[in-house]
Amino acid sequence: MLDLKQLQAFAFVVEERSFDKAAALLHVSQSAISQRIKALESQVGQALLIRSTPLRPTEAGLKVLGYYQQMHLLQQELLTDIDPEGGKTLYSNQNKVRIALNSDSLDTWFLEAITPLIRSHQLLVDLKVDDQDATHELLKNGEVIGCISSTTSNLQGCQSVLLGHMAYYPVCTQSFKDKFFSEPIHLDEFRYAPAVEFNYKDQLQSRYLKQFWGVETGQYPSHEIPSSKSFLSFLTLGLGWGMAPDIQVASLLKSGRLIKLAEDQHLKIPLYWHVWNLKSKLIKEITLNLTAQAKKSLHQLE
């Protein structure tokens, strides 16, 4: 049986990326933190931390971290079941719910799903934003309890449910289209018209270009704008074209501030909710809320 204090010390060091900060939060000395982690590594029989700057967990460390987080969640639920008042720790940093999701979900429908739970359970959340193709890795690494991802495959010890599809359209301003594109559009024009991408992981623009125009990755210029708000600003300012979800740009299309670059072309990206396969009331509630809101906000294909 792994020691709870040792596991807690390890989890805090991973979270804070520092022995000093972990010691301060746990109100113990740095030496005590170091001793607990050494004892845990001795029991596991493997190194759990890479002593770099910043500190980061080894592959074995990620598994231990995931184990601790699952155990901690179930323990908190047990305490609440036994003593509904005494078991609750109001807005405790130690009980944060960590979820990974794509920026477009966060900016459109996710908050409507999670807000009732934050209020009813007095939760603190730690939302880790990444591309929908990359959030799966954060769950695999034990950094979150669940993720919204375009990946279909289940991780060991996890379950998944299809939430729906997000429809992405190529959009830009009328002036941008007039400047860079003819009518009808020719594929070579994409090699000169700057695209707007969220970051280097954002594959939507390249996927669209390859699927509809046969343009390969790296054969077109692009801005990298790691902010959904600024991403849209770049589009409305006429600085580029980009793939944007219909639920996010509906009003901009209606007002004419943006237009669809190609009316009949779009990508429908599936979004799945992957989560630990635990008999947890909170996980069940989160899953129910997400699926209910997704049915209202996302495209549901037959």
Automatic annotation (TrEMBL):
Alphabetized GO MF terms: DNA binding; DNA-binding transcription factor activity
Keyword Glycosyltransferase attached: no
Gene3D superfamilies membership: 3.40.190.290, Winged helix-like DNA-binding domain superfamily/Winged helix DNA-binding domain
Coiled-coil intervals, chain numbering: none
Keywords, ordered alphabetically: DNA-binding, Transcription, Transcription regulation
Residue ranges constituting the HTH lysR-type domain according to the UniProt record: 2-58
UniProt record similarity statement: Belongs to the LysR transcriptional regulatory family.
PANTHER family named among the record's database cross-references: HTH-TYPE TRANSCRIPTIONAL REGULATOR ARGP (PTHR30579:SF2), TRANSCRIPTIONAL REGULATOR (PTHR30579)
The name this protein goes by in its record: LysR family transcriptional regulator ArgP
